[in-house]
Amino acid sequence: MLSRRHFLAGAGTLLGAGLVSKAGAAAIPEAQIIQHPNTIPPRAPDNGRPFNPVVTLNGWSAPWRMKNGWKEFHLIAEPVLRELAPGMKATLWGYNGSSPGPTIEVVEGDKVRIFVTNKLPEPTSIHWHGQRLPNGMDGVAGVTQPQIPVGKTFVYEFEARRPGTFMYHPHADEVTQMAMGMMGSWITHPKDIEQHRVDRDFVFLLNAYDIEPGSSTPKVNTMTDFNLWTWNSRVFPGIDSLACRQGDRVRIRVGNLSMTNHPIHIHGHEFEVTGTDGGWVPKTARWPEVTTDIAVGQMRAIEFDATDLGDWAFHCHKGHHTMNAMGHDVPTMIGVDHRKIADKIIRIIPDYMVMGERGMSDMGDMSMPIPDNTLPMMSGHGPFGPIEMGGMFTLVKVRRDQKPGDYKDPGWFAHPRGTVARLVD
Prior knowledge:
Elements: E1 2-5, E2 18-19, E3 31-34, E4 55-56, E5 65-67, E6 70-85, E7 88-95, E8 104-107, E9 111-118, E10 127-129, E11 153-159, E12 164-169, H1 174-179, E13 184-189, E14 200-209, E15 228-231, E16 242-245, E17 249-256, E18 262-266, E19 271-276, E20 279-280, E21 288-289, E22 291-294, E23 299-305, E24 310-316, H2 342-348, H3 362-365, E25 379-382, E26 385-389, E27 393-399
């Protein structure tokens, strides 16, 4: 669903993050609202300085208008309903109809003006994570600015001084608001459009939720036992694949706003860490990796050449982060002989499943009953059967005939004869 809303207010003080008065209703640009979870392919900018746009995984980039040399955006902080994967929706907070909010893309040296309207039930602010800016624009409520009251609009103004990969998120009741999904990506492109140029440029944020099966609102006081590990508030099989053309230079930018670190791992290729939220890494300081650990509050940009055809797994390497809707009080029965008791247990508890004997693929094959508005721990099917993964997992799909600018899922890889692991008689 796509709509556009007018929020009428006018220009107020620009000394620090300023409250906007009612005087000049036409001064605020329209805010684009997108509520579906699809990846929206980028298009080249039609005004302002040129840049090579990024692809926000299961998301989109915010539109802007140019006004007297300023690039103007409008963010609406508001409750949103986000589909985590088919079969489950979460009641979150976000921006412009989505959680995370839209990606903001600007160019080094741009004068940026962001209007922020608060439609939450409590005050908020926005911190522009990693930016160099005037102290009064930093977005720390009570320190550098007043809180944005409910129903009011503030304006932030600063120059995008250095290129890189950044984030935005609240610095007001942060534990609640970030736990509810309030965050977004920020990309500052270099002035030179050829600098750091790649063929495919993806971005997404890592976050996590604790949502009881059958409910839809995260428990914001949870500090460790999260049960839904998400990329841009999506879990596998709801995370889109990253479609690439063979030979493409691919960049993936990842920011972590969860409460733990994530070792992000790719199959079939090796990459280099080429950027952090502190800036671009000099070529002399890079080294090959297949896994990079991203700590809380960090951004990492990795790059690789998509040389090998196939459907390559791309995921967090913490085992429980590739599972959905986990329970934390389940006893371990591995090693217990179930041959005489499993059938008796199933007569009493029809949904009982023996773990450590047949694997978790049973959950996909048996279509086991689960509460409304939740997900099985592992789900999804591939060309060879159930995929025993969930959470922070997707596929980098490298194809010979994937056209430039085409990000549609190309379907399953057709393996050449003799290249699939097989049973030995």
